[in-house]
Amino acid sequence: GQQVMQIPQYQHVQEGEDFTTYCNSSTTLSNIQWYKQRPGGHPVFLIQLVKSGEVKKQKRLTFQFGEAKKNSSLHITATQTTDVGTYFCAGIGGAQKLVFGQGTRLTINP
Amino acid sequence: GAVVSQHPSWVICKSGTSVKIECRSLDFQATTMFWYRQFPKQSLMLMATSNEGSKATYEQGVEKDKFLINHASLTLSTLTVTSAHPEDSSFYICSARAPPWGPGLAGTGELFFGEGSRLTVL
């Protein structure tokens, strides 16, 4: 079945450093979504990418969708302590089911 | 934005008892809701898709007799963990997809998650 792989599993950075998490799907995706889950909280929707090669920005966050619509990335510039949490990508494939990646847990040293 | 409420947020029960978790969409109607299970520091695993007025669709490996799902109305889905055992201890989260006509949502297909229910079976 469809698999969504996400790396790295963990990332620890100094406040102010950049952070990137990568997402790869075994199949072509119709779209990809990104969620953030704070420790002890529930996932919160960040963004959805639909078009091949799409790039979207939200302040310090940059989201990309690959040309082949099989990979995606989230890049955070100049991390802040409020960025702490686990970032999940989730893709919708042929079965119209949303499949989540394993998540990347970001911790930040202030 | 759309709000999904889940109750209870945490529950502790004895082995062998049944536990019911409620998921409500507060400001929109959801014909479909999704139930996920999340183990500590792991991803969300889809358990089943709850369909209003019909039977739930379970993912492979999920026991439908163990995890009973009822979607009795357009705003309420319930998950009942029957005869719970310690291995059922987990974080259960429901979600619903916002309707395409919702304010500011424009059919993005994003999922709105409930706050989650942490189940501990002793």
Number of separate helices of chain A? 0
Q: What's the helical proportion of residues of chain A?
A: under 10%
**Cα end-to-end separation of chain B:** 37 Å
- In total, how many beta strands of chain B? 11
Overall description:
The complex is a heterodimer of chains A (110) and B (122). By secondary structure, chain A is mainly beta. Chain A is built from no helices and eleven strands. The mean pLDDT of chain A is 93. With 122 residues, chain B is an all-beta fold. Chain B contains no helices and eleven strands. In chain B, the strands form two sheets. In chain B, strands 2, 4, 5, 6, 9, 10 and 11 form a seven-stranded mixed β-sheet that branches. Chains A and B meet through strand 4, strand 5, strand 9 and strand 10 of A and strand 5 and strand 10 of B.
Short summary of the structure?
The complex is a heterodimer of chains A (110) and B (122). Chain A has 110 residues and is mainly beta.
Key features?
heterodimer; A: about 110 residues; mainly beta; five-stranded antiparallel β-sheet; B: mainly beta; globular
What is the fold's blueprint, element by element?
The complex is a heterodimer of chains A (110) and B (122).
Chain A: E1 4-7, E2 10-14, E3 19-25, E4 31-37, E5 44-49, E6 55-58, E7 61-65, E8 71-76, E9 85-92, E10 98-100, E11 104-109
Parallel strand pairs in A: 2-11
Antiparallel strand pairs in A: 1-3, 3-8, 4-5, 4-9, 6-7, 7-8, 9-10, 9-11
Chain B: E1 4-7, E2 10-13, E3 19-25, E4 32-38, E5 44-51, E6 57-58, E7 67-73, E8 76-81, E9 90-97, E10 111-113, E11 117-121
Parallel strand pairs in B: 2-11
Antiparallel strand pairs in B: 1-3, 3-8, 4-5, 4-9, 5-6, 7-8, 9-10, 9-11
